[in-house]
């Protein structure tokens, strides 16, 4: 369902009116309108495209999926693409929802690719900061971007907590290595996906703040600067966590290799000790006469040789920490 709003001089005047009335509201220069569409086709965007003079390429980008986070500038408007993210706490899988926006002088048209993007949360932010509504489109756009960037912080914070829990398991005595490998893989995959949507947002927000665009006034400038700072922190945090996951994985493999070397060292030491009685009993088991053949003295000599040599090897390996 399409959502609409109209602000006159910073005051909410109308809501959920038919899209056909957009042109009537826009005739008044003191009015700012918002129009929201969910999973529209090019035909659905035809009316608003004619009303606002939207560029054909921008309309095509709004319909197609998997666009990169970006800000394209045209003669009469700008086109923005961003992604809201949400992390599954149990699996560590990151889900994203694309949101596009046509930004004109007095209108903001948002296009959601699916209903996974919570537009009601954005509306709630606008209502909680109604005193800024006099800034027009900049006010609406800030609420949208602020919600998106806050989602980055929530996701990266959750990823940080899960990575800390993963760190504690690295040196645990009993670890399910298969589960740990699966979790580390999911976390790294989520971090790569988060990085892919966070890094371009720095350029997007920075471009919106440029004076030649004429979108952000003095009132909204500090708020957009705050969003920009949050994007920088989220991107830096994401980069550090990605390196940390790689370090955890490498540490885990190193510990597994060291443990395997210790086990192999102990097995080799015991094999050397066991080889002594095997060699001696094998020698005395020959079907030929030898010193002590068929006599107690031979049995005693072989037994003493086994105990002395095996004991000497045990003491030697123990001192060298091979057992």
- Low-confidence stretches are none
Shape: rod-shaped
Helical fraction: 55-70%
Radius of gyration: 35 Å
- Any idea what the CATH superfamily of the largest domain is called? CorA soluble domain-like
* Average residue-wise pLDDT: 84
Just give the CATH class of the largest domain.
Alpha Beta
Order of helices and strands: EEHEHHEEEEHHHHH
The number of distinct helices, counting runs of at least 4 residues, comes to 8
Strand order across the largest sheet: 2-1-3-7-6-5-4
What structural category do the secondary elements indicate? alpha+beta
Domain count: the total is 2
Task: Please indicate the percent range of residues in DSSP E strands (runs of 2 or more).
Answer: 15-25%
Task: Give the terminus-to-terminus CA distance.
Answer: 72 Å
Tell me the CATH topology of the largest domain.
Beta Polymerase, domain 2
Largest sheet: 7 strands, mixed
Beta strand count: 7
Summarize the structure in words.
It contains eight helices and seven strands. It is 57% helix and 15% strand. A seven-stranded mixed β-sheet has the order 2-1-3-7-6-5-4, sandwiched between helices. It is an alpha+beta fold and 323 residues long. The radius of gyration is 35 Å and the shape is rod-shaped. The chain starts with a strand and ends with a helix. The chain has two domains: 3-255, CorA soluble domain-like (Beta Polymerase, domain 2, 2-Layer Sandwich); 256-319, no CATH class.
